[in-house]
Fold this protein.
Amino acid sequence: MSNKAKIDIRTLSLAQLKEAFVAAGEKAFRGQQVYEWLWKKSCTSFAGMKNISAENRAWLDEQYVINTIEIVDKQISKDGTIKSGFTLHDGFMVEGVLIPADDRMTACVSSQVGCSLTCKFCATGKMNRERNLSAGEIYDQVVAIKNWAQTHYGKPLTNIVFMGMGEPLLNYANVLAGIDKITSQEGLGMAADRITVSTAGIAKMIQKLADDKVRFNLALSLHAANDLKRNMIMPINESNSLAAVGAALKYFHQHTKKRVTFEYIAFKDFNEGIQDAKELLAFCKQFPAKVNVIEYNPTGDGAFEKADANKIDAFCAYLEKNGVVATVRRSRGKDIDAACGQLANKKHEDALLEQ
Ligand code: SAH
């Protein structure tokens, strides 16, 4: 059987894996053992599953494949940020980043190959969305980055943000399944409140997060609290207006009691004036929220510029004065294109240049 026809074993739940063993005339606990190898121990081959008999390993090999990721081209920034490409089993590539700080080690992971949302300021937005990542591929990025935190800094991974390539809420099932493995005792056992999923604002899926009673945090890439302006930079706003996203966030807060974080890139002469701050304030007042003002990272086409520091300070001061916590987030890893919105694999960029 070619690898293509085999099932990716990590798409099976624990119950399904146990059932498969029982159906093959084996004991269910063998399924549990294999599950532990796959997740807790991140074993990448059936041959490496030491307590599984040779006969069972051969059977597994016939039926299933383990689609793992491969680390390629790891780069370390002057500020300690580490970025790497990950090649997927079918040759596609995504990127992940480790952002070290005094009090935390944060993994920034991708959820899709490319992205369908075409946000005008984002490098990934210039790629096509090729496919969703599987839960296993999401999990593997976290494991790889967790290892970097340990080997480079001797520290455990403390936080995970879904702010790499892709729109996590358009890969809803796999992102939630990946987080389930990251948080479960059969996986990495990390706390859900250390995980943040960042979305460009898919109202229906934000409501679904509330219905599914998720325990991780939600960040929303707002960047403008005015539909006309937001339509100009984020086409998703045309079908998910600020009113629709606001209603969904209200619902999310009512059901989860969580405070939402807004990400707001300050663009020069576009969204960093006091009138913009007023609109943002009105939007924030609908529910408990805080604002992270993000420095714009150039993505090459020169269409946007970063706002002046004094404008950003005045913008934040206005929000703070009116009772909204606003923090300026300085970029990390810019020298290796690891900062927000700069993730797009080089091969793709080269192809674009040739066009
Ligand atoms: N699709 C998700 C997650 C990926 S983007 C989302 O939209 O939230 C992660 C964050 O980086 C988002 O807030 C995004 O708006 C921001 N970002 C994108 N391009 C950027 C750039 N050039 N400079 C700074 N931040 C950027």
